[in-house]
Specification:
By secondary structure, the protein is an alpha/beta fold. It has 2 domains: about 180 residues, Periplasmic binding protein-like II (D-Maltodextrin-Binding Protein, domain 2, 3-Layer(aba) Sandwich), CATH 3.40.190.10; about 200 residues, D-Maltodextrin-Binding Protein, domain 2, CATH 3.40.190. About 40% of the residues lie in helices and about 15% in strands. It contains 17 helices and 13 strands. Strands 3, 6, 11, 12 and 13 form a 5-stranded mixed β-sheet that branches. The protein has a 4-stranded mixed β-sheet with strand order 8-9-7-10. A two-stranded parallel sheet has the order 1-2. α1 packs antiparallel against α13 and α7 crosses α16. It is globular.
Length: about 450
């Protein structure tokens, strides 16, 4: 889960939640229309929507939309766009935006709100009900200037629909049967057999290649050096060349070293993140562990349709580096923003906020809801993830997602360079310092 400070910064939040693990048309609503899934009236027409989802995630989203489209007869035209920068490119070029899409990078939220590029939830949503039913970490804001969770000028712009937890280590339950390692050193000592490697890693993701490595490094920073260093790093006040960030890169380097990773660094760089877990279930298994978020189970089931949770795959929490920071966990939330104010777009946004919509996300597996009343977890894995977050000391925002766009992309690229040649760590981090100095102005 995520939150932000009164100065517009993302910050640490302590959650004590009992049940978290947590697409333009001009037609108007016809008089006397039949009730829609969102409680309004049938409108017809179309919605253009961009999402980063593909595969099973996209299939599930279409399942979520079906009750809405059946009742409203609105045609939701979906385009998968994985590069968040495409929104900014369209805005700068004056090109038409989709009616609904994901949010911009945090550094653009305040400006886009001021220019009415985004439409506030307050213009169409019952905010009392929304804030009551949505986890408060996603909806509260200490002042009108905080932008980390899509709030600017005292108004909310991001509609949260589901949540994920990152930094989980997944394994084949028929292969790894030992006790989950509690510390990083314990993790590196887990024995492997034959040609098996300890880790599988995949960093390829098109224009966004490298993002899985940023998640891995972030999970190390928060546990090695703590929440304060982590926040300073997000805010551009912690140098990349500092001992803390360098140490985190070096620890990440252990997971992608030739000795430890399946296929070696070259395979890591060329393997798509969604396929990285395939060797876990190969015969013989190619690796023991894969670090990834709760959504990765969608990809396991794409590759191996007969796998069963718990009996075939499971996870353990990210091992700790020191007891003081062991309770820090990285969270992520999926959200939508309305860019064109049409009756159809309003209807869909209202629907996506409902428990009925979010129950479909959760029932399909691979995620948890943003609506705290939704607890229809399909299997014990997600209940366990929920319980883990409920017991967390702090749940921290994805650091790279909260950094300026230039910094975020530079971080992605840097992880690829480092994976290819770890001896270049000093020059890589110096380059990131230079981007930091320019991108936070």
């Amino acid at each position: 889960m995520i939150d932000s400070t009164a100065k517009g910064r993302w910050h640490v939040i302590a959650l004590c939640l009992a049940a978290l693990l947590i697409v333009s048309a001009c037609s108007q609503t016809p008089a006397g229309g039949t009730p829609s899934a969102s409680g309004g009236a049938t409108t017809g027409g179309t919605i253009t929507l961009w999402t980063a989802w593909g595969g099973n995630e996209l299939k599930t989203f279409r399942d979520v939309l079906k009750p809405f489209t059946d009742k409203t007869k609105i045609d939701v035209r979906i385009t998968t766009v994985r590069d968040v920068a495409q929104l900014a490119i369209n805005v700068e070029a004056g090109t038409t935006l989709p009616d609904i899409a994901g949010p911009p990078t945090p550094d653009k939220i305040k400006d886009w709100a001021a220019k009415s590029v985004m439409k506030p939830l307050e213009s169409f949503l019952d905010m009392t009900a929304y804030t009551r039913d949505t986890y408060s970490a996603l909806t509260t804001c200490a002042s009108s200037d905080c932008i980390g969770i899509g709030v600017a000028g005292g108004k909310h712009y991001q509609l949260f629909v589901k949540t994920q937890v990152k930094g989980l280590f997944w394994y084949n339950a028929k292969v790894f049967k030992g006790d989950p390692p509690k510390t990083w050193d314990d993790l590196l000592k887990v024995p492997v057999s034959g040609n098996q490697k300890r880790f599988c890693v995949g960093l390829e993701s098109g224009d966004a290649s490298g993002w899985p490595a940023t998640d891995m490094i972030e999970n190390i920073v928060m546990r090695q050096s703590g929440a304060d260093v982590y926040q300073k790093w997000i805010d551009g006040k912690q140098k990349w060349t500092s001992p803390e960030i360098k140490q985190a890169f070096q620890s990440f380097g252990q997971t992608v070293s030739a000795d430890n990773v399946f296929g070696g660094p070259t395979t890591v760089l060329s393997t798509n993140f969604g396929r990285a877990g395939k060797p876990l279930f190969a015969n013989p298994p190619g690796c023991l562990f894969l670090e990834q978020a709760t959504f990765i189970t969608n990809f396991f089931l794409e590759d191996y349709k007969d796998l069963k949770s718990v009996s075939d795959f499971n996870f353990f929490p990210h091992p700790s580096f020191n007891s003081a920071n062991a309770g820090n966990i990285e969270g992520f939330a999926d959200s939508f923003v309305m860019y064109n104010d049409t009756p159809q777009a309003r209807e869909l946004m209202k629907y996506l906020a409902t428990a009925d919509a979010q129950k479909i996300f959760v029932a399909a597996g691979g995620t948890l809801a943003a609506n705290k009343t939704v607890t229809n977890f399909p299997d014990p894995i997600f209940k366990n993830a929920n319980d883990m977050v409920a017991a967390a000391k702090n749940v921290l925002v994805d650091a790279s997602d909260a950094m300026p766009a230039d910094m975020n992309k530079a971080f992605w690229r840097a992880t690829l360079e480092f994976t290819k040649d770890q001896s270049k760590i000093d020059s890589i981090l110096q380059g990131l310092d230079q981007v930091q100095a320019s991108s936070y102005k």
